[in-house]
Specification:
The chain has helices spanning about 5-35, 45-50, 55-60, 70-80, 85-110, 130-150, 155-175, 180-230. The protein is mainly α and about 230 residues long. It has a single domain, classed as Vanadium-containing Chloroperoxidase, domain 1, CATH 1.20.144. Helix 1 runs antiparallel to helix 8 (about 180-230).
Length: about 230
C-alpha cells in the first residue's frame, strides 16, 4: 500500500523543517568554532543583574528538570504508564542518542563556560547546552506523541503548553545560573529539536516500509491460497 498523499506532504514538510533546524545549528556551530561573539549573549547580563534569592532558588529547582537523571525518570515513567511500550523504547533511544551527540559536539568545539558568574558547579564545556538539548529532545518527543495520538483537545493544549514552558525555563535557568551563554542554550534547543524530529522521520519511514512489506506478504499469501483452492 503506497503512502497516502496527505502523509507524503506531512513527511516532506517535516524533512524541510528538520533541514532548516539543522542548517541553523550548523551555522551557529561554525560561527562559534571561528570565535564569533553573538549579540544575544548580551542577554546574560540582564539575567545576572536580575538575580535575587527567590529567582535563584526557583531556577536551581527548575534546572534539575533538564538533568540526565530527571529525564531518565521521565523516560521510565513514559515506558510504565503508556499502553504502547514502544513509546518508552523510542524515549530511551532519544535520550541516549541526544546525550551522545551533545557530548561529541561539546568536545569538538570545546567552548569554555562563562567566567566567575556561576551560581552552581558544572563540569565540561559550554556549547551546546546539554540541559537545553536533552529537555528539548525528550519533552519535544512527548509533545509529538501527545499531539499525534491523543484525542482529547484539552489534554493536548495543556500538556503541550506545560512542556513547552518547562523547556523554555530549563534553558533560561542555565543562563541565569551563569553556566551557559544564551547562544549555548539556543544551540541546544536547535540541536535537540533537530535530533528528535530526524529520529521520528526515520521511525515513520521504517514503520511505513515494514507495513508495506507486511501488506505485500499478506497479499502474496492470499494469492497463493486462492490459486491452491482453484487447483483443487
Amino acid at each position: 500500500m503506497p503512502m497516502s498523499k496527505e502523509k507524503r506532504i506531512k513527511l516532506i514538510i517535516a524533512i524541510c523543517v528538520c533541514v532548516v533546524l539543522a542548517l541553523s545549528f550548523l551555522t551557529m556551530l561554525i560561527l562559534v568554532a571561528c570565535g564569533h561573539e553573538f549579540k544575544i549573549d548580551n542577554l546574560n547580563e540582564i539575567f545576572y543583574n536580575g538575580r535575587n534569592s527567590f529567582w535563584t532558588g526557583f531556577f536551581k529547582i527548575i534546572t534539575h528538570a533538564g538533568s540526565v537523571y530527571f529525564l531518565i525518570l521521565v523516560v521510565i515513567l513514559l515506558f510504565m504508564i503508556t499502553r504502547k511500550k514502544y513509546y518508552g523504547f523510542i524515549g530511551i533511544i532519544c535520550l541516549i542518542g541526544a546525550g551522545a551527540v551533545n557530548t561529541v559536539v561539546k568536545y569538538i568545539i570545546r567552548r569554555d563556560r562563562p567566567l566567575d558568574v556561576a551560581l552552581i558547579s558544572e563540569m565540561g564545556y559550554s556549547f551546546p547546552s546539554g540541559h537545553s538539548m536533552l529537555s528539548m529532545a525528550v519533552f519535544g518527543l512527548i509533545i509529538y506523541f501527545v499531539i499525534k495520538y491523543s484525542k482529547n483537545l484539552a489534554f493536548k493544549i495543556t500538556m503541550t503548553s506545560i512542556l513547552s514552558i518547562l523547556i523554555l525555563l530549563i534553558g533560561l535557568s542555565r543562563v541565569y545560573l551563569g553556566v551557559h551563554y544564551f547562544s549555548d542554550v539556543l544551540a541546544g534547543w536547535l540541536l535537540g529539536a533537530t535530533f528528535t524530529l530526524a529520529m521520528m522521520i526515520v521511525v515513520r519511514i521504517i514503520y511505513h516500509h515494514r507495513k508495506k512489506l507486511k501488506n505485500q506478504a499478506t497479499t502474496e499469501k492470499e494469492a497463493k491460497s486462492s490459486v491452491s483452492k482453484e487447483n483443487l
